[in-house]
Amino acid sequence: MQEISSGESSWSDVPWRTVVASVAVLLATYVLLTVVLATVRILAWVAIAGFLAIVLAPAVRLVQRSLGGRRTLATCLVIFTALAATVGTLMLFLLPVRTQLIAIISDLPGTVHRAADGKGPIGQLVQRLHIESYVQDNEQQLADAAQKLSDSPINTAQSVLSAAFALVSILLMSTLFLTQSEPMGRAFLGIVPRRRRASVRTIATDAAGAVSGYMVGNLLVSLIAGATAFACLMALGVPSPVVLALWVAFADLIPLVGATIGAAASVLAAYLHSPGAGIIALIFFVIYQQIENGVIYPWLMARKVQVNPLVVLLSVLLAVELFGIVGALLAVPVSGALQVIVKAVRKERPLEQLLLPDSMAAGG
After folding, report:
1. Per-domain boundaries in the chain
2. CB-CB neighbours of 353 under 10 Å
3. 48-62: pLDDT as tens digits
């Protein structure tokens, strides 16, 4: 019995240094998680700014060569041009929507009476989709949503200021990333072992090229989708074809479901214009999506990285959960960049045995 008891271990046998180290690791982990959760918004801004810097880097290099090597001026020109194009597109989209909303609200009493009698396109849609029963079943949820939309001017101003602050912060970080990319690259390579610097430089260049190439190609696909949608809606005489075409182009940027979301809004608008136009629009978008998936997308993306569809789905779901709609736009190019990095690392591993250690390389 004495031998058995002597062989048993107890807490008193654990060295005090091990206990202190374990507690320190737990505390450090807790503090790190607390800091990450507290700064998740800032980390998201940094990620978006870095992504924008990677996408705009080819344009900055092109403008820099035209300006004789003045990178700061080239960066500012590219950033402001991209910002102006984005704001102009949003205004082109939002102003007609505002006009339509004013017209709808002005004619709301008559529209409601006609819809209640089952007359007009809205009345027919209400009857077919059983919207009246849905509204009755979800009256409280709709009231809560209306309450959120009717915030006080102070809350609205705070939201606008927060969005403006986020936009300015992201633009400033993107500008700094672009102007300081060379010093940052040299500093990063300085901590990499000398024998791996060439490989790391190649991998970083390929990953950045995959991100920018994918985004440029995806933007071209979206522009084609918007242009063809505009032509179709104009031919059918559907109201507000510019707004609908811009929505199709924007939605087409979202992987997997974006094209369907954009087409659904256009088909619905065409059907409200006339049932025949709705049927024609539905046939058009079905045929166009087949052409886009089978011809346009492979042609424009032939030299870009191809990501497994399952990886796309999982990355989009995770990115949407973490960063919302912005995450959906960034999920595929980030996954493509990670795929490039993994492939390059796997290719480099067989060459490890051919590389000399740093000490021997320095001594030679």
Report:
1. 40-130+159-191
2. 6
3. 888 888 888 888 888
